[in-house]
Structure formats: structure tokens, C-alpha cells
Amino acid sequence: MHIPAYICDAVRTPFVYEGGVLSSLRPEELGAIPLMALMVRNPHIDWEQLNDVLYGCAYPSIRGGGSSARLSNLLADVPAAVPGALINRFSGSGIDAVGSAARFIKSGEASMIVAGGMDSMSQANRLNSARRADGNAASTSVGNFEAVGLENLLAQMEYGSLAMAESVERLAKEFNIERRSQDRFAYASHRKAYAAQQNGYFDAEITPITIAQKNGDPLIVTRDGFPSRVSSAALAGMEPLSLDGGTITQGNSAPAGDGACALLLACENAAHKYSLMPKARVLGMTAVNVSPDAMGIASAVAGRKVLVQTGLAMDEVGVIELNEAYAAQAIAVLRDWRLQDDDPRVNPNGGALALGHPLGATGARLVLTAMHQLHRAKERYALCAMCAGAGQGIALVIERV
């Protein structure tokens, strides 16, 4: 049985850099916000008939743990009978949730699912810092498996660690990606994201968040905390993370962020029953693994594989949303695909280098942003791809309807 799986609505919180105005919210609190927005936007749906909520999260809170998605349901007042499940594929968690929801619908096991992702990198990094201070986490380079204890392996997968930067440095050398190209790519991401924000392209994606203040009126967050109009000179002046001839800097690396994103997927019957307007169809998703010390190139492998799976060629793809974990990593993927560094189909509204990277939410945001861009550009197919910790990669294709 093959039943089309449609994305009928989607919304996200603003994305804010680590330590910003969303830093007090736990992942499950962030995840509840787009869920509530979907329910408000679609009051005609009988939400008790929702089959599931699938949320990706790379760093669930200690309090929420594996029940974070279920807690988001309860915080959002989703009917108590609706289950919730957490998916963790590190950075690929959000895409995985969307693709998994589509598979349930295509198989006929579900008719309507909310899928997305959430993460608070502010809280995750505070926890990781506390662990390191207590000596409970090792600092081990990717690919060094001489010490095979669990803590060593976990340390290799931490977002933003020097170990990941070292693996991307190796990619930069392999693909001859000099520092200037990386900074140029990062500058373009900021410039495109700022223009998209100014043009109101993100307005349809974002639901506001109200943050209570100890003194004064509540703070209402309506826009992404960044992008900024960063200068190319400022990027060029940043010190490398590794002083031993390195090219990776904070400026050409995606900053950690806080945020959540949720998409409403349905079969044709459910869409008709609840007067939903399908906006895109999920054609396929695939996940791959490469060596952990080559993590960044996994996006390229996954992208090629999902195109074969869906029977498409790269020149048929009108929109490419590629996660920008690092500028060098993104450029390596484009060169592996034999595309130009500045291919206009790639992240036309900027990416994680400008918007920040709440790990579990970013993949879902790629799908949401790609869906809107397909309609703006009147293109047919979009490819969303990203790498994830420990050598994982994941990619998904959607079609405009």
C-alpha cells in the first residue's frame, strides 16, 4: 500500500542563539509552542484523532528525558489520548521525525501526525559544561578510539566540540576549501537570511513566544534573534578554533541555538475531512553512515541516495536546503555534488550559520523553509539534507502541490 503523505501546515518558534531570550525554556516547553500554534491555526480539526506526535531532540532535558515529546503534548493541551515519541538522530532528528511520520501515513498505519523537533542548546551546553567541570566527560578527537569508554564516545559527538571542528578541517583540506571561501559562504548566509527577514519571508513560518519578565511587561519574541548584518571584515578577523594552521572559526561555524518546529502531516482523506490544504508531498527519506571522522560529508552521501530512491536527478531539484553546520562542511558537500559554492538553489534564505542551530529543530526547519520556498519560486522539488554526530547523514525530498 502506498498512500501520499502531505504536509498541510507547519510553524516554528523564532530561533535564538544560545544564551539568548529563550534560554530559560526547556526543550519540552519549546516543543509545546508550535504544537499550540498548529491547534489554534486549525480549530476545525478533531485533535483527538491525531495519531501521534513525533519530535526530534538531540539533547532532551533531564526532567523530560525520553518523554519530552509526551510532555510537550501535555503542555500544549493536546488531547490526553494522543501519544508522543522522541526521536534522536542528533542533528538529523527533526528530518527523521518528518520522514518517519510520512512513512506511517504512506503505509496506512496513520492518517494524521504532527512531526518536528526541538532543542535548547543553552540548557544542553550548560549541562555539558557542568559535566566537564566534574570530570565526567572526556575530550577526545573524532576518530580516536584508543579509549573506548562510553564517556569518550559521547564526548566525540558533542555539538560544537573541537573534535567536530577537527573533522571538518580534514574535509577542508580534502576539498581544497580555503579560509576565504568559508568566510565568503558564511557572509552570504547572513546576507541572505537578513534579506529574507526584512522581506517578511519568515513571518509565515514563525509563531511568537511570550517570555515573562521579573520586572515589567512580558517580552514578546516575534523574529529570529539573528541574522545580523555581519561584515566580511569581521569574519576575516576571527581567530581559528585550532591555531595549528586551522581555517574553522566561530564565524564560519553554526552557532548553537534554541527553538522548535512542528509540521502537520496527513493523508488525502484526513486532509479532505478537515478541510486542510496540502502544501507539499513527502516523496522519500533516507539515512546513511560514514566514518565519524568524515561526518560532514554524510549529507552528500544521503542526498545522492535519496535522489536515487525518489528517481530524481540533481538538476530536477529547484530548492536545496542544506544544513550549514560549518561553512567548510557545506561547501564540501556542494563540491561532492559538483555544484558551485554559490549555487542559487542552495539556502536562498540563509541557513544555520546565520540563524543558529538548535540541533533537534533544525532539520524540521529545513523542510518548513523548503516548502515555502518551493511556492515562492514555483519550483517542484526540494532536497533537504544534513549531517549528524558520529558520522550520520540524512536527507528528504518533498514535492510542491
TrEMBL record:
Residues 6-268 form the Thiolase N-terminal domain. It holds the Pfam family Thiolase_C. It comes from the Bacteria. GO terms for molecular function: acetyl-CoA C-acyltransferase activity. The keyword Repeat does not apply. Coiled coil: none annotated. The keyword Acyltransferase applies. Residues 277-400 form the Thiolase C-terminal domain. Belongs to the thiolase-like superfamily. Thiolase family. This is Acetyl-CoA C-acyltransferase. It comes from Keguizhuia sedimenti.
